[in-house]
Structure prediction request, 109 residues.
Amino acid sequence: MNKSRRLKFGNCEFCLDKHQLHVNGHLRKAEPLALDLLLYLLRNAGRTVSKQELLEAVWAGQSVSSEVISRTMMKLRRAINDNAPNELIWTIRGSGYRLASDIDVAITG
Prediction:
């Protein structure tokens, strides 16, 4: 991988410059909205982000239901191989989503 600004979390890296996701060093295809959702969660690591906040930030101004968040989150989790017991993104019932507390987000490159 070329040197660029990246956010590293678990076995994943998000390339800020190219808006790309790498898992275990390999480029992973993902929908642009799923990558936007991931980037928002990474930038807000350590706190619970509400569905309403995600709708406003990721789907700014678009008229969509909260179900679109669930579908996009499912695609994102698939892209990063997010599954129990090593879950990277937590669903906080009734509140929203949060990156797991033991995730170390660091800029590299």
Remarks:
- The helical segments are 32-43, 51-58, 67-79.
- The chain has one domain: 6-101.
